[in-house]
Amino acid sequence: MNFHGILAIVAISILIGTTAQVYGQYGGGPPQSSVGDFKVSINLDKESYSAGDIISLSGNVNKYDEKRSLQITIFDSAKKIALNTEIPVAADGTFSYNLSPNEKFSKAGQYTLNAQYGKTHVDVKIISFTIIDKPMETSSTPSDGVEPTSAKIPDWIKSNAGWWADGSIDDNSFVQGIQFLIKTGIMKISS
Asked: Which residues of 150-181 are buried (b: 16+ CB within 10 A; e: fewer)?
């Protein structure tokens, strides 16, 4: 081995020894990155909602910190902020919250919810949900118990109803017409 090789080995040994002394003197090497230390697990009660529905969310954080709150940001399908709020987290790391719809996120469409616990050293949890237009309320059986049918009501029944309303025929005659509709299956009455 030549002189330069020995000199390089000695220099490296001195540097390694000095670095260890410096780290020992000042508390060790540089701190490890703490990005992502605070993680959120979040769930919605449904994947889609009707316009005007309350959105229930719940979950937990991996480490509780009383100085932090859960940051919730909801974006609409055009990537515009529809809601930005903070939610408290219990000391056991759990949370639950009901989001009431507002004018910015009550319309039909796809929404993205971002959740993070605090503003530093966090992982952002992203989930999506859909709001659909509320369907018109229809009932297969009206409250009077008579099931609707697509059969055509005979004209003479319509005439009987009119005559009964005018007082031209008695109740018994009108009831016979209704009984005919039931017997022939045009009108069905649930039990």
From this structure: eeeeeeebeebeeebeeeebeeeebeebbeeb
